[in-house]
Amino acid sequence: MTEQSRGRARSGRRPGDSGTRDAIRAAAREQFAEQGYDRTSMRSVALQAGVDPTLVSHFFGSKQKLFAEVMQLPFDPSAVIPRVVAGDRAGIGTRLAGFVVSVLEAPEGAARLTGLVRAAASEDAAAAVVRERITHDILGPMAAALGSDQPELRGSLVGSQVVGMVMARYVVRIEPLASLPAERVVALISPVLQHYLAEPLA
Amino acid sequence: MTEQSRGRARSGRRPGDSGTRDAIRAAAREQFAEQGYDRTSMRSVALQAGVDPTLVSHFFGSKQKLFAEVMQLPFDPSAVIPRVVAGDRAGIGTRLAGFVVSVLEAPEGAARLTGLVRAAASEDAAAAVVRERITHDILGPMAAALGSDQPELRGSLVGSQVVGMVMARYVVRIEPLASLPAERVVALISPVLQHYLAEPLA
């Protein structure tokens, strides 16, 4: 993050930097989500943002750092996770399934999450970013909120079912899963998330 | 498949075609699995196979058809699925989990399945091939073998958990899931596969 922090530190002194960085972020977000990690380059992002390619390196350092910067989750985990995990244990699977599916049914949320999953699948450098994001931003707070036995394992099992649902319904679009109403999907995966989060594990 | 069938029909008349096709298949299989669908081209496959690029088009028609040809499952679904699905209902989740994990723990099986999942995530053309393969080769036979209520839905739910496990443990490598012994993974996902396959759905 050195390059990126440096870019930020300098931006206070140079009016216009903030707009440039925003334009680069917007272009990168779109290209990573639509073309995947592989086919997005510092140069293609610069071209779309209408800036010199050297500015992209200057502000963000590397493609991997740019990816980490823009592929944010479409929600604030520190606000959402305690809310979902708190409350009665018997409803935790349904609450989490409802939240995940509501994010995925919103176009912006779907684009960001499928973008993350697509990118993670495409290249080890992107997978490393996604792994760190999931571990720190989601599994860590979830484990802390759960506070039960094996919270990290429970979180990663939930992650496997959520990522699999993203792939099966939204990326590969396997039927009949792809065409089900959202509330049906919530009902179908709730018992599984409930099991992973709150029932005894093998 | 017209181009491909034409290639096959001609091969009977030209000795050496079979070796050439095998070399192209081997190179394509390796590149699709290791570099993904995007970065594999007819030209890069030809280069690695040591053949003229026009021969790749001649035998296989298009990149998508070449992909469909070589990204076979690392097992014969028509033999495996009835064996896994048959027998006592109470053990179906454990049998399927055991089979899936045993395939994924073998290097060749892991390379093929992660290759399929990576490719499916990377581009719509590859996702279409994977969707058709999963639907016809796996979900169809599984639905026929299950013969219970909503067999297609059950199959696609199982698919979501299996693909998610491939992503979480073998591609993104989320901990602690990535480092667990194989038999622990079998034990952890068995109840979920059991639920999807044999218990009442919401």
Structural class of chain A: mainly alpha
Mean pLDDT of chain A: 85
Overall outline of chain A:
elongated
Count of distinct strands of chain A: 0
The amount of beta strand of chain A, in percent, is under 5%
Biggest beta-sheet profile of chain A:
none
Number of helices of chain A: 11
Q: Give unreliable regions of chain A as ranges.
A: 1-15
Whole-Å distance between the termini of chain A? 40 Å
Order of helices and strands of chain A: HHHHHHHHHHH
> What's the multimeric state?
homodimer
How much helix, percentage-wise, in residues of chain A?
Answer: over 70%
Describe the structure.
Two copies of one chain form a homodimer. With 202 residues, chain A is mainly alpha-helical. In chain A, 76% of the residues lie in helices and 0% in strands. Chain A is built from eleven helices and no strands. Chain A has helices at 2-11, 17-35, 42-49, 53-60, 63-70, 77-85, 92-105, 107-122, 124-146, 151-171, 182-198. The termini of chain A are far apart. The model of chain A is unreliable at 1-15 (pLDDT under 50). At the A-B interface, helix 8, helix 9, helix 10 and helix 11 of A face helix 8, helix 9, helix 10 and helix 11 of B.
Produce the secondary structure layout.
The structure is a homodimer of 202-residue chains.
Chain A lengths: L1 H10 L5 H19 L6 H8 L3 H8 L2 H8 L6 H9 L6 H14 L1 H16 L1 H23 L4 H21 L10 H17 L4
Helix pairs in contact in A: 1-4, 2-3, 2-5, 2-8, 3-4, 6-9, 7-11, 8-9, 8-10, 9-10, 10-11
